[in-house]
Amino acid sequence: MKALIIDDERLARNELRRLLENFPKIEVVGEAANADEAIKMVNELRPDLLFLDIQMPGKNGFELLEALEDDTIPEVIFTTAYDEYALKAFEYNALDYILKPIDLPRLSEAVHRVFEELDRKHDHDSISERKMLGENDQVFIKDGEKCWFVKLGKVRLFESMGNYVRLHFDDQKPLVLKSLNALEERLDPISFFRANRKHIINLQWIEKIEPWFSGGLLVTLRGSGEKIEISRRQAIRFKDMLSL
């Protein structure tokens, strides 16, 4: 597994690299002192894992992830001296959040979690290819004690909530234990569109489209009135896909 260490403190990078020598399956392929350096290295080296500080000069760790192309985002372990960003970190699907100073047992726990996630993805990929799910397919959903058997065409919005996805249909909003990326792989792109990092929208439920900041778009969903931003990058795809 190729890893990249991103931290503005040289001593912190050196110490983490030293600790990672205890894990021969992880190869540190580079270090970056700021987000701009890191973005270039991610695009060139295509690492599998980032050890990412949050507070850095220029872009912070969250802004770095937002600047990456969706298909180049590696797994992420945040390494920081601040505990107040933990909730936000998991909104970015981080595998772990380690507070400095980092010790070997805590790092070992995080690395174990990384390999568990890799095994899970490998098992998923090893399953025979499943058919793409379209708006006419029905799916079983269980959230706590409640169960639904719902046609996907009724689901207007999929919303990432860390390691879960919230489905919006009728007046229901159940959670399922699945990442938005994994769900996107199963959904038919003719009907379902990845609007941004947190949302997939059902194109049949769009009622209104408006220009938005920085070249993005703002869509209003029919019935619910929910407003979802289509990011600038995705807005380009959206226009290409739906234009004559």
UniProtKB/TrEMBL annotation:
Annotated Response regulatory domain ranges read: 2-115
Family annotation (PROSITE patterns): HTH_LYTTR (PS50930), RESPONSE_REGULATORY (PS50110)
PANTHER family documented for this protein? STAGE 0 SPORULATION PROTEIN A HOMOLOG (PTHR37299:SF1), TRANSCRIPTIONAL REGULATOR-RELATED (PTHR37299)
GO-annotated molecular function: DNA binding; phosphorelay response regulator activity
Q: 4-aspartylphosphate is carried by which residues? A: 53
Q: Which UniProt keywords apply?
A: DNA-binding, Phosphoprotein
Which InterPro entries does the protein's record reference?
Answer: CheY-like_superfamily (IPR011006), LytR-like (IPR046947), LytTR_DNA-bd_dom (IPR007492), Sig_transdc_resp-reg_receiver (IPR001789)
> What range(s) does the HTH LytTR-type domain occupy?
141-244
Listed name of the protein: DNA-binding response regulator
